[in-house]
Amino acid sequence: MTKIGFLGLGTMGAGMAAQLLAKGFDLTVWNRSRAKADALAEHGAKVGSTPADTAAHADIVIAMLADDEASREIWLGAQGALAAMKPGAVAIESSTLTIDWVRELANVANDRGVGFLDAPVTGSKQQAKEGTLKFLVGGTDEVVAQARSVLDAMSTDVVHLGPNGSGAILKLVNNFLCGVQVASTAEAVAMIERCGLDATRAVALLAGGAPGSPLVSAISQRMLDHAYEPNFLPQLMAKDLAYAKAAFAAQGINLASADAARARFDAAVAEGFADKDIASIVEPLRRV
Question: Is residue 151 located within the same domain as residue 206?
Fold first, then answer.
């Protein structure tokens, strides 16, 4: 039986780890806050005391973390997972990170005889819970094949895009587009409401027309319902837009629209919505 170590049990990681447990994998989990790990232990998971302890006997180690800083600490810190991994094991980084850090981590892993995939996901909390994520994967054919059954257990699609860094690139492009759509949807909803239109009818027309998308439909409904149970946090989207801006700038593209969108997420955080869903960015616009 494949032994898996899972690092990070936040909004996405908890659902992903639960899927692996439900599919019968031998799972050891670690989270900075022990309570989230203990919740999975009640369903049969083992709990690691450190990232290194979690990774020591694993065939595959998966991380789902907030940012570059957290990823570096968990993989390469004093109790980091990578040094504890056995040769021939596979490290999978599913967090949304900078391309430079992902490639650096891949090189360190390969130097230590550990296979590496950058495999961020599309989908949110519900898709993680249901096992219907899509993985955007960078790495070699051989390592993808080695990890395939584990990725399949958490997803409906595993898209191998190319060498290490490829998944990280497309994930930043994906989240850039998502962030701009969410910000523009918030502005549109606020305009509709301030002008006294029937918001339900107006938003339905927009969501079902040319401006619509699955994201616009879902986010606009949350905004109308004031339904802010977190699926994705505003500060994480702001971080992703900052990472995307840097990645695009390296290719000579100035993401002016990302700057404007990020300002909306930063404003929501500043006004007390840091722990709410990204749909809550409409609230500062409603208050003006």
Answer: no
- Looking at the structure of the chain, the number of domains it has is 2
Sign of CA dihedral 229, 234, 235, 239: positive
pLDDT at 1: 77
Cβ atoms < 10 Å from Cβ of 7: 31
For residue 56, what are the domain limits?
Answer: 3-163
pLDDT at 287 over 90: no
- And the tokens for 129? 């819970």
| 116 plus 250 within the same structural domain | no
Exposed/middle/buried for residue 211 (C-beta within 10 Å: 0-12, 13-18, 19+): middle
Residues 220-261 pLDDT 10s: 999 999 999 999 999 999 999 999 999 999 999 999 999 999
pLDDT at 195 over 90: yes
Judgement on whether residues 118 and 191 belong to the same structural domain of the protein: no
Q: Last residue of a domain, which of 131, 147, 163? A: 163
Residue 130 and residue 80 share a domain: yes
Joined together, the tokens standing for residue 90 give: 């596979």
- The model's confidence at residue 101, banded by pLDDT at 50, 70 and 90, is very high
DSSP β-ladder status, 3-7 and 46-47: unpaired
Task: Examine the domain organization and report whether 148 and 32 are in the same domain.
Answer: yes
**CA–CA gap between residue 173 and residue 239 (Å, rounded):** 13
Examine the pLDDT at 288 and tell me if it is beyond 90. no
SS (H, E, C) 101-133: HHHHHHHHHHHCCCEEEECCEECCHHHHHHCCE
